[in-house]
């Protein structure tokens, strides 16, 4: 939490400077803003620069933030999906020895496939096939996301403020966040959300077909990554757009529906048909998602009004411990018995990642400086609309039993920055307390830029953030470096290998799972399998030509030895 404390201190200093020296640097800031505004007026160039800057920064920090190694179930499952697509398949046949390879967030019946939706996996597959590694798909999607956010903001506010927002996204999300440094996902649904919100004001004002198609594309991306949360986001957005046209005149809505909505709906329908085809190939039904198959197989529950299933057959004690322990049942009881605490934790997780002290400052300053007796009148129609969309979209988080991760609301990234920048712009042009409020608005980008420089310099200063599950803009994600080390060792060892993974009874399966394989198990150089005691013999008979190894993850460092039993 070193950088969080540092951000808190810089925010406090900014408040102190605003209160004591409100005119500090006014001439210098004014000149800088004029030059910045001239650059931002070239809107297309600003969008391209934002995207390229995100890509360049991530490349530049590779020496201190190398290509990440997966650790958590979600990452391995997304990588399986990407590898499946990279092999030219949508699903894989169930392996005859699948019980030995059974693991979390992976389906084995009716096909061997990831439980997740294909949107993020498509980018990972592109990185694997075209650029040589799935990480470069993450890298590319991060640059596209930052560029799309800048483009979206241009539809809602002056170009200068839109570019400020784009650069803030580069710093706070595209450089050091776990979205850019893992395989969890986040950048792709954020890209989809940016296209939806960016198209909204453009459609309302100019009714160009291009913008309608971009909104439909954004909805398709959200549907292929976070469909449950996306329903709560896209539905109010579309309804508000229709309301805008209905309010203008009696002719606006029918004309929009005929000329704009029909082509957009057709594009979205094609995307949904393609998604249904993917479901059919994976689950056997276009109306059954891989996620649903996994929930039924292992008794997963999602909402507090559901009931825990009994009688589920588990082939491994690890699987039983995971699905009947704190990861599922614990969250279920927390949601039912301590709902307020759970919702508070969810809000904290979202605040830490998306805002933190620095980006909370202009919001708090704006709220505290509304004219007396005119608080609600201070909310412009834009703010009211965006807050209404957020309120509906946030319901998707309130209903579930899980504390969640920031990428669950990745599609709202543009909305969060829109709200922030609208308030910053209001502070910058405020009267009355203008000097103090203006320096607060100016100080936030400076704080973020300074923090970025300090984060880049952190390894030299020996203060790099330690891996943590507390998600902030620069928290380093957990990685399974030991598994990667052993995998690299075996990949450079002649022959093909079969690795039996033996855990201790107290092993933490939620945060440290080793048994994951590629899409083509038989064709893999290294295969990972669970230790099943005497049943391992049938696995050795199936793979007679492979060298058998035993790995013990709970020995430090992890121990790899020839399987001699």
Key structural traits:
four-stranded mixed sheet, two-stranded antiparallel ribbon, 61% helix, 22 helices, mainly alpha, 565 residues
Can you summarize this structure?
The chain has 2 domains: 1-70 and 117-302 and 338-479, no CATH class; 481-562, no CATH class. The chain is 61% helix and 4% strand.
Number of strands: 6
Q: What is the helical fraction, as a range of percent?
A: 55-70%
**How large is the share of residues in beta strands?**
under 5%
Molecular shape: globular
Query: Low-confidence stretches at least 5 residues in length (pLDDT < 50)?
Result: none
- Based on secondary structure, the structural category is mainly alpha
What does the main sheet amount to?
4 strands, mixed
Spatial sequence of strands, sheet with the most strands = 4-3-5-6
* Global mean pLDDT: 92
Assembly of the depicted chains: single chain
The rounded distance between the terminal residues' Cα atoms is: 46 Å
How many helices in DSSP terms?
22
**Rg on CA atoms, Å:** 25 Å
Q: In sequence order, what are the helices and strands, one letter per element? A: HHHHHEEHHHHHHHHHHHHHHHHEEHEE
Number of separate structural domains: 2
């Amino acid at each position: 939490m070193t950088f969080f404390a540092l951000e808190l201190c810089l925010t406090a200093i900014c408040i102190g400077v605003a209160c004591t020296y409100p005119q500090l640097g006014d001439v210098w800031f004014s000149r800088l803003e004029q030059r910045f505004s001239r650059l931002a007026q070239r809107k297309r160039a600003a969008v391209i620069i934002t995207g390229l800057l995100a890509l360049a920064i991530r490349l530049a920090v590779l020496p201190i933030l190398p290509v990440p190694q997966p650790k958590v179930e979600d990452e391995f499952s997304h990588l399986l999906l990407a590898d499946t697509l990279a092999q030219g398949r949508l699903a894989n046949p169930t392996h005859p020895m699948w019980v030995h390879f059974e693991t979390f967030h992976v389906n084995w019946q009716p096909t061997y496939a990831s439980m997740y939706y294909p949107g993020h996996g498509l980018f990972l597959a592109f990185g694997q096939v075209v650029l040589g590694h799935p990480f470069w798909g993450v890298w590319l999607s991060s640059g596209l996301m930052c560029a799309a956010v800048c483009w979206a903001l241009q539809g809602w506010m002056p170009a200068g403020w839109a570019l400020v927002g784009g650069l803030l996204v580069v710093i706070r999300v595209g450089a050091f966040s776990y979205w850019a440094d893992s395989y969890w996902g986040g950048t792709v649904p954020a890209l989809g959300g940016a296209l939806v919100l960016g198209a909204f004001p453009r459609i309302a004002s100019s009714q160009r077909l291009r913008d309608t198609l971009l909104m439909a594309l954004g909805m398709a991306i959200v549907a292929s990554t976070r469909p449950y949360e996306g329903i709560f986001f896209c539905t109010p957005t579309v309804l508000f757009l229709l309301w805008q046209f209905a309010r203008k005149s009696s002719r606006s809505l029918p004309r929009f529906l005929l000329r704009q909505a029909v082509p957009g709906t057709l594009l979205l329908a094609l995307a949904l048909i393609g998604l249904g085809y993917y479901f059919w190939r994976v689950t056997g039904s276009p109306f059954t998602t891989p996620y649903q198959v996994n929930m039924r197989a292992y008794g997963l529950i999602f909402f507090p009004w559901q009931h825990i299933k009994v009688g589920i057959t588990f082939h491994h004690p690890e699987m039983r411990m995971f699905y009947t322990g704190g990861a599922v049942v614990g969250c279920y009881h927390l949601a039912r018995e301590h709902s307020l605490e759970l919702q508070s934790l969810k809000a904290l997780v979202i605040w830490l990642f998306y805002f933190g002290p620095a980006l909370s400052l202009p919001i708090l300053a704006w709220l505290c400086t509304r004219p007396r007796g005119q608080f609600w009148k201070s909310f412009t129609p834009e703010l009211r609309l965006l807050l209404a969309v957020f309120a509906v979209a946030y319901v998707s988080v309130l209903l579930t039993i899980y504390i969640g991760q920031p990428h669950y609301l990745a599609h709202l990234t543009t909305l969060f920055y829109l709200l922030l920048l609208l308030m910053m712009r209001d502070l910058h042009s405020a009267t009355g307390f203008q000097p103090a409020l203006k320096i607060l608005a100016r100080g936030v980008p400076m704080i973020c830029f300074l923090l970025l420089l300090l984060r880049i310099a952190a390894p030299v200063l020996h203060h790099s953030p330690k891996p943590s599950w507390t998600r902030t803009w620069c928290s380093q994600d957990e990685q399974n470096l030991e598994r990667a080390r052993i995998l690299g060792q075996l990949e450079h060892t002649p022959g093909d290998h079969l690795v039996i993974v033996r855990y201790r009874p107290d092993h933490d399966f939620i945060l440290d799972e080793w048994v994951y394989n590629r899409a083509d198990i038989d064709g893999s150089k290294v295969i990972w399998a669970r230790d099943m005691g005497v049943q391992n013999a049938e696995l050795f008979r199936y793979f007679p030509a492979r060298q058998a190894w035993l790995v013990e993850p709970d020995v430090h460092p992890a121990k790899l030895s020839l399987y001699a039993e």
